[in-house]
């Protein structure tokens, strides 16, 4: 990724006529715009619309086929919550050790977890409502608890920009509310939050900005205006 140009001051991530895809197959075409520092944006659109692909492009995991993406922060500094399913819940690791991986960008995989860092891990586990479960194996958690634990790892990492791919998919309502509150807290702290979401009401109530993507950009700006302009066919309820 390229460093941001002075003209893009105020942006954390900036796209200039970006196309992303796999081989010859384009998933995102000709996307330009920027995510302002401290903005909170929902990325919405139909299945296969290119939302996950866009996140991978922003993270530098996928190189643009055309155009360029600039980031204010080096890639390891970006926080990323991929779609759930990548982690084998039977892997014999404790909640505490799973969450402590969020320290790696700071101390490396083999760095010493000092008492203040251990306290940071404990505090993150408590902040997502999993206090008392730190010594449990991750396989003992319910689906909602598992997603809370993944958020705790991000809390420990404390990145300036957080990209989340369907963070509320499949979780119970109490967990969804708790996780939305954490997103809101990050926003209030001035972090840049970018989340792929499907639920229209949640986008409306929690995300000031929306990027609608169906292969091409269908809208990007204030949530109310973007949602009003969308055809229902592109926005499954
Ligand atoms: N690894 C891959 N190799 C080839 N094609 C892919 C790959 N990942 C995604 N695609 C294709 O790229 C297009 C966009 O997929 P993407 O997962 O980005 O969409 P999405 O909007 O996140 O969809 P969903 O809401 O279903 O998660 C789809 O046509 C998909 O089949």
From TrEMBL:
<dbReference type="GO" id="GO:0016887">
    <property type="term" value="F:ATP hydrolysis activity"/>
</dbReference>
<keyword id="KW-0067">ATP-binding</keyword>
<dbReference type="Pfam" id="PF00005">
    <property type="entry name" value="ABC_tran"/>
</dbReference>
<dbReference type="InterPro" id="IPR003593">
    <property type="entry name" value="AAA+_ATPase"/>
</dbReference>
<keyword id="KW-0614">Plasmid</keyword>
<dbReference type="InterPro" id="IPR027417">
    <property type="entry name" value="P-loop_NTPase"/>
</dbReference>
<keyword id="KW-0547">Nucleotide-binding</keyword>
<comment type="similarity">
    <text>Belongs to the ABC transporter superfamily.</text>
</comment>
<keyword id="KW-1003">Cell membrane</keyword>
<dbReference type="InterPro" id="IPR017871">
    <property type="entry name" value="ABC_transporter-like_CS"/>
</dbReference>
<dbReference type="InterPro" id="IPR003439">
    <property type="entry name" value="ABC_transporter-like_ATP-bd"/>
</dbReference>
<keyword id="KW-0813">Transport</keyword>
<keyword id="KW-0472">Membrane</keyword>
<protein>
    <submittedName>
        <fullName>Metal ABC transporter ATP-binding protein</fullName>
    </submittedName>
</protein>
<feature type="domain" description="ABC transporter">
    <location>
        <begin position="13"/>
        <end position="233"/>
    </location>
</feature>
<dbReference type="InterPro" id="IPR050153">
    <property type="entry name" value="Metal_Ion_Import_ABC"/>
</dbReference>
<dbReference type="GO" id="GO:0005524">
    <property type="term" value="F:ATP binding"/>
</dbReference>
